[in-house]
């Protein structure tokens, strides 16, 4: 049980004392939004630009227009949610059963489709991303099936 100390195992309400360092690989630039009221349930179709920092440009090799991506971002929490809001109850779903941006950690996993790529400048135009302007870009991954890791090459 890596990351757990005897103290955290004895008191499950106390989070383990583990620290992480995340280094952004770029910044998200959201296209200007039109002031319209979205339907109650909708799939975001906004365009955004993912701007990668120069050291990460070689990582774009192999990407192509039309591919689906997981875009991992970090946003600034508002701090307006009470500490016990994560629990839910009385007919209110807990945070893990929602898509709210107010989460225990300010990390978002968003799916988007790559529509254009400028490899020299490190700019990826995507659609379907609903994220804040200036959000830190933490990672980009192909949105493949989880089953792709269960097979061996040549099988």
UniProtKB/TrEMBL annotation:
GO biological process: methylation
An example molecular function term from Gene Ontology annotations: methyltransferase activity
Signal sequence residues: none
Keywords from the named record: Methyltransferase, S-adenosyl-L-methionine, Transferase
Record bears the keyword Acetylation: no
One Pfam family named in its UniProt record: TrmO_N
SUPFAM superfamilies with a match to the protein in the record: YaeB-like
Flavoprotein as UniProt keyword: no
Domain TsaA-like: residue ranges: 22-152
UniProt record similarity statement: Belongs to the tRNA methyltransferase O family.
Name of the protein this chain belongs to: SAM-dependent methyltransferase
Organism per entry: Candidatus Geothrix odensensis
Organismal lineage: Bacteria, Pseudomonadati, Acidobacteriota, Holophagae, Holophagales
